[in-house]
Amino acid sequence: MANFSMVTGFLLMGFSDIWELQVLYAMLFLVIYLVALMGNLLIFTLISLDEHLQSPMYFFLKNLSFIDLCFISTTLPKSITNSLSHSRSISFTGCVLQFFFVIFFAVSELFLLTMMSYDRYVAICQPLHYEVIMIRDTCMKMAIVSWLGGGFFGVLYSSTTFTLPFCRSKEIHQFFCDLPSLLRLSCSDIHIGIDVSLAIGIALGFLCFISIAVSYGPIFSTVLKIPTIDGRSKAFSTCFPHLIVLMIYIATSGTAYLKPPQESESVLDLLISIFYTMVPPILNPIIYSLRNKDIKISLRKLIVQKYLS
């Protein structure tokens, strides 16, 4: 049996054998990356500079933007570079690091979105106690728990995955190092460590889903009782974008990691991976900036200040 230490690198999937199509895919990914990068960086900068955007909601949104910025930077730059350089290689260490950071940021985002649902619950269902419950110290602790949770699962999944022996092939049928593709390369059919890790992940993911459902039940009930249409519209405008991102993120990432293993990856597997790694980082800045009055006002103020200076 081959030992995992003998593996020096892997080959990531190429989208086409035709050079022109490779360049086209690289340009498409580059546009997606730049849009996500600029959008999340803009929100992070606006919230950091504007003293009027210091409420708990914007604190969590700032963390979310930073996670999304890092999340998409973990996968796309390597894929773009490989497409333009006629190379598909990634070193063993590079694959370990990429895998770790994908899990780290993915889990951190899930936990943070769960914390944000609780923030919306307190703001809408207990508005008189909001400033008492969601104090800065509490928000900091919630954010730290999200980051530590991501780090814990990153270490757990990386340690259990890369101690497996890889001997079937070096080619990963994905544009980044992810768990289902790596398991197909293992020459061991027994993955006790992975199975235990997945069980822990599923359990916590289910708890996050239950927490979100418990939060949004009272939220919608309370919003529907608001007598004015403007009041209901304002409340829904802060909840629906968050809920949309959550549903896309949970549905696609859950499908990617929980579906039964197959011998080879399909186009659907690739599309699912693209959705949970690219869509949330692009969607978050759009829905939180274009639909948010305070963000738009802050952006206008920043533009005016730069113009006047």
Describe this structure in words.
The chain has 309 residues and is mostly helical. It has one domain: Rhodopsin 7-helix transmembrane proteins (Rhopdopsin 7-helix transmembrane proteins, Up-down Bundle), CATH 1.20.1070. 76% of the residues lie in helices and 3% in strands. The chain is built from 10 helices and 3 strands; from the N terminus they run E-H-H-E-H-H-H-E-H-H-H-H-H. Strands 2-1-3 form a 3-stranded mixed beta sheet. The longest helix has 34 residues, at 92-125. The protein is globular and about 65 Å long. The chain starts with 8 loop residues before the first strand and ends with a helix. Residues 1-5 have low confidence and may be disordered. This is Olfactory receptor. It is a multi-pass membrane protein. It is found in: Cell membrane.
Beta percentage is: under 5%
Structural class: mainly alpha
- Major sheet description: 3 strands, mixed
Instruction: Count the E strands.
Output: 3
Let me know the average pLDDT: 84
Helix proportion of residues, in percent?
over 70%
Q: Which sequence of strands runs across the widest sheet? A: 2-1-3
Q: Any idea of the CATH class?
A: Mainly Alpha
Total domains: 1
CATH architectural category: Up-down Bundle
Cα-to-Cα separation, first versus last residue: 67 Å
Radius of gyration over alpha carbons? 21 Å
Full CATH superfamily name: Rhodopsin 7-helix transmembrane proteins
Anisotropy-based shape: globular
The SSE order reads EHHEHHHEHHHHH
Low-confidence stretches: 1-5
Indicate the CATH topology. Rhopdopsin 7-helix transmembrane proteins
Function: Odorant receptor.
Family: Belongs to the G-protein coupled receptor 1 family.
Domain G-protein coupled receptors family 1 profile: 39-288
Organism: Sarcophilus harrisii (Tasmanian devil)
